[in-house]
Amino acid sequence: MQYKLLFTDLDGTVLNYGQFRESVRRTVKKLKENGVTVVVATGRPYCTALPIARELGLADGYVIVFNGSQIYYKGQLVYNDMLSRDRLRFIVESGRRLNASQVVWLGDKLYAEQKNEQTLSYQERTPVQCNFVDDLTELEGATKVLWNNSEEEVARFFQEMKNTEGVNVHPSHPLFLEFVGRNCSKGIALKYVADKLGVDISDTVAIGDSFNDLSMITQAGFGVAMGSAAQEIKDKAQLVVADVENDGFVEMAEKCFGQTLN
User: Whole-angstrom Cα distance, residue 5 to residue 114?
Assistant: First the structure.
């Protein structure tokens, strides 16, 4: 089978602590040269995903950010689905009740109420300066809400919040629990992009390592999990490759697009 369209997560899939190996760049270049369309699908905001997409030569096509809450095409926002103010209020108030450290993304602007260890640590991961406000529920809505706590707390919060009405909830990292709109997921975004490009779902491949990747791994014609992924994710994938440190992305490309890469 000759697949035509590849969706790839960034962190933990092609990026290791914010850096990617030269082998990843070469592989993406070779895929493109041989007619495969490669699409970034990340939980990051556009402002931090774009520089990476540019380095990989992928900024001139579709870029899926905020776990599918926003989709850009050639630098233009073509899909945008926010959490309503009511849903934002419910999530923020739930976070206060559970003592979760939370930040809110509204477009490419970052907000928080508390200047604590977690929010300051999260701010260090992004070049965006955090706006500290008195009350997050006063924002008009949110593109994404993120709770940043210990691995044990995130697992507990997920069990309590995973069935929240009108919201997609998933861990994107052992320390992060993310909330986006109910019409937002990487899987929904995969279908949107495939339809726009006129590519059948059966001709798509998706690769990722976290629970926010699970929807696209199961939606794609062929789903691939990184070796570092949780067992539940691996169980839903058709192929498990090495982790990011051992070129799992390159292994995927060789196995799924081998004839193309020769």
Answer: 42
